[in-house]
């Protein structure tokens, strides 16, 4: 079966006993296999933990990458700000 | 280096190739296996009633290649035909890791504490500021104003 260029899947780890809880860790694995190239890129990041309590209650707690969110926000602000400045001062100079 | 003597009446047997490729693939496969759940989430650390599990983002890049070649057929001793060949391979990889959060389990419950890397946030802020400053300086530069005047 031929490999896909990009594969994304959620992988669950082995359950871990922590006190009265049982925790299942979840990751998202993205694999890039360029065609005709021997090798690739793997990007694994934590996405959530599933908590199983003794009474059978199950809940999922997402993991937010705060640093990455700030990075994307700041770079987005920089890009949009640059575009706004270009449009603003570009128009003034052309008058 | 592979070398095989062949009589004129027998077929030429080429050396088996792909050995270095298989070895390289095996090594790279082991590298890929290290980038799994067990690496993203660390071992639980227990202190009194509190247990924590560190979580990190892991990025791994690998690449490898191999090649082989055969020499020309030449006449050996007693009229036999001899050829030679060789194969080689190589590869490399890099693994990046960055802490993302910590899972904390205590008698009060289980919670996820995010890890903030202030250095990376500051670098992103400086980069964004640099983009905007560069755009602004380019727009208000005297050279640009002169070009606009010359166009008029």
Describe the SSE topology.
The complex is a heterodimer of chains A (95) and B (152).
Chain A (H helix, E strand, L loop, with lengths): L5 E7 L3 E3 L2 E12 L6 E15 L4 E5 L3 H29 L1
Chain B lengths: L1 E5 L12 H15 L3 H4 L4 E3 L2 E21 L3 E2 L5 E26 L2 E6 L3 H23 L1 H10 L1
Antiparallel strand pairs in B: 1-5, 2-3, 3-5, 4-5, 5-6
Characterise the protein shown here.
- The complex is a heterodimer of chains A (95) and B (152).
- Chain A is α+β, with helices and mostly antiparallel strands.
- In chain A, 31% of the residues lie in helices and 44% in strands.
- Chain A has two domains: 63 residues, no CATH class; 32 residues.
- Chain A contains one helix and five strands.
- In chain A, strands 1, 2, 3, 4 and 5 form a five-stranded antiparallel sheet that branches.
- The radius of gyration of chain A is 22 Å and the shape is flat.
- The mean pLDDT of chain A is 85.
- Chain B has four helices and six strands; from the N terminus they run βααβββββαα.
- Chain B folds into two domains: 114 residues, no CATH class; 37 residues.
- In chain B, strands 1, 2, 3, 4, 5 and 6 form a six-stranded antiparallel sheet that branches.
- About 3% of the residues of chain B have low confidence.
- Chains A and B meet through β3, β4 and α1 of A and α1, α2, β3, β5 and β6 of B.
- β4 of chain A pairs antiparallel with β3 of chain B, so a sheet runs across the interface.
**What is the terminal separation of chain A in angstroms?**
61 Å
Number of strand segments of chain A:
5
What is the radius of gyration of chain B? Answer: 31 Å
Secondary-structure content class of chain A: alpha+beta
What kind of assembly state do the chains in view correspond to?
heterodimer
Order of helices and strands of chain A: EEEEEH
Helicity of chain A, in percent?
25-40%
Low-confidence stretches of chain B: 6-10
Overall mean confidence score, pLDDT of chain A: 85
Mean pLDDT figure of chain B: 76
Give me the Rg of chain A, rounded. Answer: 22 Å
- β-strand percent of chain A reads 35-45%
């Amino acid at each position: 079966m031929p490999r896909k260029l990009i594969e994304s899947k959620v992988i669950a780890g082995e359950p871990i006993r922590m006190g009265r809880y049982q925790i299942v860790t979840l990751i998202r694995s993205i694999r890039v296999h360029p065609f005709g190239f021997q090798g690739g890129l793997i990007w694994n990041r934590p996405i959530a933990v599933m908590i199983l309590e003794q009474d059978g209650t199950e809940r999922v707690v997402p993991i937010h990458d705060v640093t990455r969110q700030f990075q994307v926000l700041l770079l987005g602000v920089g890009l949009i700000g640059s575009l706004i400045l270009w449009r603003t001062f570009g128009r003034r100079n052309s008058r | 280096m592979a070398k095989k003597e062949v009589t004129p009446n027998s077929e030429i047997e080429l050396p088996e190739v792909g050995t270095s490729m298989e070895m390289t693939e095996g090594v790279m496969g082991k590298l890929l296996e290290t980038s799994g759940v067990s690496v993203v989430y660390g071992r639980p650390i227990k202190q009194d009633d509190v247990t924590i599990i560190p979580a990190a983002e892991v990025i791994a890049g690998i690449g490898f290649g191999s090649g082989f070649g055969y020499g020309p057929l030449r006449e050996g001793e007693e009229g036999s035909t001899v050829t030679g060949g060789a194969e080689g391979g190589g590869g490399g990889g890099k693994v990046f890791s960055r802490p993302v959060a910590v899972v904390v389990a205590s008698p009060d419950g289980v919670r996820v504490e995010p890890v903030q890397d202030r250095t990376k946030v500051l670098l992103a802020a400086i980069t964004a500021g640099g983009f905007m400053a560069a755009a602004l300086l380019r727009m208000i530069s005297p050279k640009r104003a002169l070009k606009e005047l010359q166009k008029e």
